[in-house]
Write a structure and sequence with these properties.
Blueprint: H1 19-22, E1 47-48, E2 54-55, E3 64-70, E4 73-79, H2 97-122, H3 137-145, E5 152-154, H4 160-165, H5 170-177, H6 212-225, E6 232-237, H7 244-255, E7 260-266, E8 269-270, E9 273-274, H8 287-291, E10 295-299, H9 303-318, E11 324-329, H10 347-354, H11 358-369, H12 374-397
Parallel strand pairs: 5-6, 6-7, 7-11, 10-11
Antiparallel strand pairs: 1-2, 3-4, 8-9
Helix pairs in contact: 2-3, 2-11, 2-12, 3-9, 5-12, 6-7
Bound molecules: thiamine diphosphate and magnesium ion (MG).
Thiamine diphosphate binds near residues 238 and 265.
Length: about 450
C-alpha cells in the first residue's frame, strides 16, 4: 500500500450508496489523526511473506488442522497456540469518520439481517437453505464499500453485506429467501442467487466455486470496449479458488489487464474440507505471482485493511493497470449452511476467531477513537434493529407469486433492447478489402 502522501486522494467521495457517507469528508482527507498521533495509532505493518507478498496483518497465526482417528472415527484436531489476545483494527489511510460509521452500520445490518434470516428459517418460512457470513461481514462490506457506484460486484452466498452496500434492502434478501413475489427474482430462485445488472451493477452468483470470475472479466472487457476502465470485484473461497473456472477467468483478466479485483475469502473451510486438504501452499496470495498481478494478504476480520487494499486495487483498475488478488484471512463462524452444524470444526478455532469478531472490533475502534459515543452506538444499533423488524414484517406479509406468473420474466422478451452501459464500442476504421485477423479491429487500449 502506498503511504498517505504518495496516494492521490480520490476526486470524489467514492461511496455512493449511503447519504451520510456522501455528505462526509473525501477519501484521504478524513479527520483521522495521522499515524502515530492521537488515541488510535495502529498502522498496518510493512511486512512481506516469504514470497514477497505484502502481508498487512498485525498477527500471523500458525495453526494446523490435522486428521486423527479416535474410536474408529475421523476427527480434525488442531496444533498451535490459540492464546494470543485479539489485536485492534489497523487505521485506514482513506476512510473518513462518516464513512467508517456508515461501513459499521452496514456490518451491523448484515449481522442482524442474518440473525433474522436464521429465525425465519427456524420458523420454516425459508424455502431451501440459509448461508450465513457470520464473522465475514467486515470483509464483505468493506470490499464493496471501496468501489464506486458504476463499478461492478459479483457477490457469493456469504456476501450479503456487499449486497446491502449496493442498495439491496434486508426485505429484498428476506423475500428472496422466502421465495416471495416481491423478491428480486419474484420467487423464481430462493436463496442468494440474485443481482441487478441495470441499476445496481450486481452480477447474481452463478456458483460459489469461481464461475463468477470469468463473468467479471468479461464485464470488465466489455466496459473497456465501450471506452471505460471499471473495477469488477468478486469473491471466491479457499475451496472455490482451486477450480478450473477460477484459474481460467482470473488468468484472462490478468493477461488482458482488466480491472478484476478478486477477493479470496480464506475462511479455513470449504464445506467440511479444511484448507490443509485443499491446497499445499500457505498463502493463497502467492498465486498472484503465477498470474502476474499484484497480490496482498489482509486480515479479513479488519474492515479497514480490506477497504484500503480494495480501494487501491480499484484505483489501479481505473487507470487500466489490471487485476489484483486480495487474500482475506478469517474464519467461517458457522457451518456451510443452516443444515450443517460444523461439528467437524475444532472448538479452539471458534474461540480464537470469536475474539477477533469484526463487528465487535469495529465497534471498539469507533468508540476508542471517539467517532461514536456509547449513546450514538446504542442509537445506531436500535435503529438497525428497527429497520430489520420492519423489513421482516414486510417480507413475511408479502404474497407468494401467482402460479400463472411462472412463465413470465424467465426468457428475454424480443422487444427488450439492451443498451450499451458506457457507450458504443470503440472500433477502429478499417479500409475496405483489408485482410484482418479476428477481433483485430477492436481497439482495446483507447
Ligand atoms: C460446481 C459446484 N460444485 C459444488 C457446489 C457445492 N458447494 C457450494 S459452496 C461449496 C464449498 C465452497 O467452499 P469455499 O470456496 O471455501 O467457500 P466458503 O463456503 O467457505 O465461503 C461447495 C462444495 C457448487 N455450488 N457448485
Ligand atoms: Mg472457505
Amino acid at each position: 500500500m502506498k503511504s498517505k502522501t504518495e496516494q492521490k486522494p480520490a476526486t470524489k467521495n467514492n461511496q455512493t450508496s449511503n447519504a451520510a457517507a456522501n455528505s462526509g469528508q473525501k477519501n484521504g482527507t478524513g479527520s483521522a489523526p495521522a499515524p502515530g498521533k492521537g488515541k488510535f495509532t495502529q498502522v498496518a505493518p510493512q511486512r512481506k511473506n516469504p514470497h514477497g507478498i505484502p502481508d498487512y496483518r498485525l498477527e500471523v497465526p500458525n495453526f494446523q488442522t490435522v486428521e486423527e482417528w479416535a474410536d474408529g472415527k475421523l476427527r480434525y484436531n488442531v496444533k498451535g497456540d490459540f492464546s494470543a489476545p485479539a489485536p485492534s483494527l489497523c487505521e485506514s489511510k482513506y476512510l473518513s469518520k462518516e464513512q467508517s460509521i456508515a461501513m459499521y452500520r452496514y456490518m451491523v445490518l448484515n449481522r442482524k439481517m442474518e440473525q433474522a434470516l436464521e429465525n425465519l428459517f427456524k420458523q420454516q418460512k425459508v424455502i431451501g437453505g440459509v448461508y450465513l457470513g457470520l464473522g465475514q461481514e467486515g470483509c464483505s462490506v468493506a470490499a464493496a464499500f471501496a468501489l464506486k457506484k458504476e463499478d461492478w460486484i459479483g457477490p457469493m452466498i456469504r456476501n450479503q453485506g456487499a449486497m446491502l452496500v449496493r442498495g439491496f434492502t434486508p426485505a429484498d434478501t428476506m423475500m428472496q429467501y422466502m421465495a416471495k413475489a416481491g423478491a428480486p427474482t419474484k420467487g423464481r430462485d430462493s436463496g442468494s442467487h440474485y443481482g441487478d445488472v441495470h441499476d445496481k451493477n450486481v452480477v447474481a452468483p452463478i456458483s460459489h466455486l469461481g464461475d463468477s470470475i470469468p463473468v467479471m472479466a468479461g464485464l470488465a472487457l466489455g466496459a473497456r470496449l465501450q471506452g471505460k476502465n471499471i473495477a469488477a470485484l468478486t469473491f471466491v473461497g479457499d475451496g472455490g479458488q482451486s477450480t478450473g473456472p477460477s484459474y481460467e477467468g482470473f488468468n484472462f483478466a490478468a493477461v488482458q489487464r482488466l480491472g478484476v479485483i478478486l477477493v479470496m475469502e480464506h475462511n479455513l473451510w470449504a464445506y467440511s474440507t479444511p484448507v490443509e486438504l485443499q491446497f499445499a501452499c500457505k498463502d493463497l496470495a502467492d498465486r498472484s505471482i503465477g498470474y502476474g498481478v499484484p497480490g496482498f494478504i489482509v486480515d479479513g476480520t479488519d474492515p479497514n485493511q480490506v477497504y484500503d487494499v480494495a480501494y487501491e486495487a480499484a484505483q489501479r483498475a481505473y487507470k487500466g493497470e489490471g487485476a489484483t488478488l486480495i487474500e482475506a484471512k478469517m474464519m467461517r463462524m458457522r457451518g456451510h449452511a443452516m443444515h450443517d452444524a460444523a461439528s467437524y470444526v475444532p472448538k479452539e478455532y471458534f474461540e480464537y476467531w470469536k475474539k477477533r469478531d469484526c463487528n465487535t472490533r469495529m465497534e471498539k475502534y469507533l468508540l476508542d477513537r471517539g467517532w461514536l459515543t456509547e449513546k450514538d452506538n446504542k442509537d445506531l444499533i436500535a435503529d438497525v434493529q428497527a429497520q430489520i423488524d420492519r423489513d421482516r414484517d414486510i417480507a413475511d406479509a408479502s404474497p407468494f407469486p401467482k402460479p400463472e406468473d411462472a412463465t413470465t420474466g424467465v426468457f428475454l422478451d424480443n422487444s427488450v433492447k439492451i443498451p450499451f452501459k458506457y457507450g458504443p464500442p470503440k472500433v477502429k476504421e478499417v479500409k475496405k478489402g483489408t485482410k484482418i485477423g479476428e477481433a483485430s479491429n477492436i481497439s482495446h487500449y483507447k
